[in-house]
Specification:
By secondary structure, this protein is an alpha/beta fold. Helix content is 52%, strand content 8%. The strands form three sheets. A five-stranded parallel sheet has the order 2-3-6-1-7. Strands 4-5 form a two-stranded antiparallel ribbon. The protein has a two-stranded parallel ribbon with strand order 8-9. A hairpin with a 6-residue loop joins β4 and β5. α20 crosses α21. About 15% of the residues have low confidence.
Length: 430
């Protein structure tokens, strides 16, 4: 059995990361068997190296190794590509065609981006894994194939299974052995080694001196997030090699080639966007509360100023209209006066109290409540700072009462989903 270091030299793999070494060790150990292997990892981490190692160290090494990019083949033709078709099976099928599973008989087939396979093709692939059998498109004859399957994917397979985009039984058939390749950002000690390797390769390819990073530029290279992994690093090295006349690359020059350098803003935004739907639901109810508060306060200001100008008799109808709007049509103004408890307002600063004269608690309703109508308007303005939490709770309670506890109707009135309302009910213990 070859060592990990020997395999790295043989297949041109650069790096000493523990996760990378562990992945290569698993590939070496599983190679002599016919067990199906699933290689996982982000796009650009070098998953295509694993099937090469497995095939080269297996008893199938004299057979074919066929690599198929499942995501690049249209859904309508992928069954024909993988399993072949008979003449006349569909429009354009002018002759019988051998598929990849027939061509790779006795060898290894590498299914890259296997998570992109259509569900109908997944059923056919499951039969190959279970019985080593397949049927060509347009045929009824069962054919045998002796292939070893190595698959790779960059998608979260458990999420795909939950969304019914990938068959659970097929996943467990493919992942008898799973090999995970770490992302480049977790291999910080390998980043500069890979950059130097790529710089040397491009210098040879384009017949030019090799670029070298300044000492203070190396930490920037290693701390960068590398969303595109090794593929992105290789592209950056090639761009700098071709475009820069100066062969010693400064930190400012390197920075100009690294998008979003100085932070991992893209990944942060991506995480935040996953919870944006919940945030939008919360925002909807807050906006409704704010608009309702503003409307009620505007009406209250208008009514109060009219009362001070003209007296209560001239605006009785407006009074009743406002009270009905706030408390409902079944409540009379007299009931509100009887049941409401008035308390002395608390002002945020002493400056307001100089202009306000609170009526003594003697029951004399004719006593002046406010000395200056304009400063009373300031008091109302202060009321706008009431807790949104309290207003939201009050709004939900009233809506539920109006609809006799029917959540669906209450949610429609509030302009939110029933699920969001249910969560609010649990939150406020209603």
């Amino acid at each position: 059995m070859e060592s990990v270091q020997a395999i790295k030299q043989r297949f041109g793999i650069i790096g000493n990361d523990l996760g990378l070494n562990r992945a290569i060790e698993k590939a070496i150990q599983v190679a002599p068997t016919d067990i199906s292997v699933l290689v996982t990892g982000e796009s650009g981490v070098g998953k295509e190296s694993m099937p090469k190692i497995i095939h080269a160290l297996s008893h199938r090494k004299h057979g074919k190794l066929i690599a198929v990019n499942c995501g690049a083949i249209p859904e309508g033709t992928i069954d024909s590509e993988l399993f072949g078709h008979e003449k006349g099976a569909f429009t354009g099928a002018t002759q019988t065609r051998r598929g990849y599973f027939e061509e790779a008989d006795g060898g290894t087939i590498f299914l890259d981006e296997v998570g992109e396979l259509p569900l109908t093709t997944q059923v056919r692939l499951l039969r190959v894994l279970e019985n080593k059998e397949f049927i060509k498109v347009g045929s009824s004859k069962v054919q045998k194939t002796n292939v070893r399957i190595v698959a790779a994917t960059n998608v979260n397979m458990f999420e795909a299974i939950k969304k019914n985009k990938f068959r659970e039984d097929l996943y467990y058939r493919l992942s008898t052995i799973e090999i995970l390749l770490p992302p480049l950002r977790n291999r910080k000690g390998d980043i500069h080694l890979l950059f130097r390797k790529f710089a040397t390769d491009f210098a040879s390819k384009y017949s030019m001196p090799t670029i070298r990073l300044a000492e203070n530029a190396i930490p920037m290279l290693e701390k960068y997030h590398w969303n595109g992994n090794i593929r992105q690093l290789r592209n950056i090295a090639e761009q700098i090699s071709v475009l820069e006349h100066e062969r010693n690359i400064s930190i400012s020059t390197l920075q100009s080639y690294l998008p979003n350098v100085g932070g991992n803003l893209p990944s942060v935004i991506e995480k935040q966007s996953s919870s944006s739907s919940d945030f939008n639901n919360e925002r909807e109810i807050l906006y409704k509360v704010l608009f309702d508060m503003k409307s009620d306060l505007s009406d209250l200001k208008k009514l109060t100023l009219e009362l001070m100008k003209n007296g209560s008799s001239s605006v009785q109808k407006d009074q009743e209209k406002l009270i009905n709007k706030i408390y409902g049509n079944d409540v009379s103004p007299a009931t509100i006066v009887e049941n409401e408890t008035f308390t002395e307002p608390v002002y945020p600063s002493e400056s307001h109290s100089e202009f306000l004269q609170i009526a003594p608690a003697t029951g004399n309703t004719s006593a002046p409540i406010v000395e200056d109508k304009y400063h009373f308007a300031e008091e109302i303005e202060e009321e706008e700072t009431l807790s949104l939490h309290d207003k939201e709770l009050e709004l939900i309670k009233k809506s539920l009462e109006r609809h006799h506890g029917k959540r669906k109707l209450a949610a429609e009135e509030l302009g939110i989903s029933e699920r969001t309302l249910y969560r609010k009910i649990k939150q406020y213990d209603l």
